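Continued from yesterday's entry.
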Amino acid sequence: MMGHRQVDQAALFYEFSLERHVPAGHLLRSIDRFVELGDLRRELAPFYSAVGRPSIDPELMIRMLIVGYCFGIRSERRLCEEVHLNLAYRWFCRLGLDGDVPDHSTFSKNRHGRFRDSDLLRRLFESVLRRCIREGLVGGEGFAVDASLIKADANRQNGVEGQKGLPPGATGHAVDEYLAVLDDAAFGAATEVTPKFISPADPAARWTGAHGGQAFFAYSTNYLIDVQNAIIVDVEATTAIRQAEVWAAKRMIERAMERFDLYPSRLMGDSAYGSAEMLGWLVNEHGIEPHVTVFDKSARKDGTFSREDFTYDHEGDVYFCPGGKTLTTTGTRVNDDATILYRAAKHDCSGCVLKSRCCPNTPTRKVPRSIHEGARDMARTIAKSWEGRVSRRLRKKIEMLFAHLKRILKLDRLRLRGPKGARDEFLLAATAQNLRKLAKLIPTPNLKPA
């Protein structure tokens, strides 16, 4: 018999439990176990007045931001709408059925004030990382580093020529932040090269054509991950240029050592981190094995002998050319004292049968050697070994995190402007990725909802 919908008489009372209506396997139920905000509340307390009207609960705003970045809800206006309607979001944010969702403008006001003044989002990221360490997900032996370009919220059509500088009327938070980081190694001081174009809306964003297609304004998000479970150990926002990315790698490694007592035995990276100075920093200053592709431009394309055709003798500190002659040095350094020159004797070169293939246009052959060449040789040896092949495979984990960041979390373009805006978004996204990883790798106890 066909049933009838019973809507004749509305009930006077309802019994409803959010706890019972959130599925046991919901992502937020798994994540909620790892969100610990008690310490953050205490650290925020000095930034609130002891008198006056009570503010919006900062824990509510943090939980809402976690929801937004875990589920790729990029707009704070839309986030407020989703939290208002979604029962699971209300449960995670401790709002119940009747709790009021704050206005979207509350996030902007707190972001430019208390959150940045207290470095709250950095503390939130580090609290989640500490939980990852306590759960045994961070091995601390093998780290990988890389950077990825994220488009800035800046229209490429509105850029002005870099040589002309910013228009006189350019104002706003992003402009103030740009002027504040002109001497910062992560931004203005990373290079002396003037960019081709500058965006008046976000002048710290770098004009780049690194993807090979249409150029655009961008920032770089830099990740340092532990390759055991692809946990993000640190994240740093920089301008989209190699020098700044190398500086960020050093800063992240040192911060992991200082704050978390994590001393990796090896670092994996591509050729962007394979400069002689960077490899020397890893090996000589920190004793880290460089599982990094060496950045080497010594190969010649004119058919003459390259540097690799010369054999270096460590004991005698000399080079031997393909003809068996010796190249010595007086210790003279060039290129800002970073390179030592080795020269062959003129009488050896003048009568050599290989001169046309060695130095046809000069009386003698010179071979430059970096003061960090020992670290470069170590990296080359590792690259040819079985461990080097394994590291190249493990290094792909960081690329997978960037793909997840852009495709799943939908952070392929920034919503906030300025270096601080980029830093805020990258920290929140990395926090969300670590929380999702915790939820995936740490089983949920088999407890039935009340």
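--- second protein ---
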Amino acid sequence: MIRRMLLLPLLAIAVVGVARAQEAASSEADQVLKADEARNEVLQKGDADGVARYLTDDVAYANEKGEILSKTQVLDNLRSRKQKFLSFKHDDVHVTVHGDTGIVTGRSTSVVEYQGQVSRHPRRFMNVWVKQGDGQWLLAALAETAIAEQ
């Protein structure tokens, strides 16, 4: 009987701890999604300086052509209009957070012009965000791949 009386408060503390951890993870996921959406907004506009605010200095951007682009290359492509968005749409978006790393996955049906070629086919993307010491989330890696026709 005494054991049960001692066990109940410990169980209650454990349940509260799990609930708080889930709430914190949800809040972090919301922050990652908000950063991802804000970057998408300036990206759609072709605002290279706006995009730069959301990228780590060593970001790796793997585009659907298989190229790995640096931050400088991504920003230069936007500034020179080598890359521009003719339409922009993401769906099936999911966010997971593991400590100071957030992963956003989804499907893009955006129409993108890159180096004079227009891409209209759907793509899957994965954006990897890292939380900085000041609490800001920055994009460290992005990968896109075409969705195979079925």
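Residues 15-23 have pLDDT under 50 and may be disordered. Residues 2-146 form a domain with the Nuclear Transport Factor 2; Chain: A, fold (CATH 3.10.450.50). Will compare against the first tomorrow.
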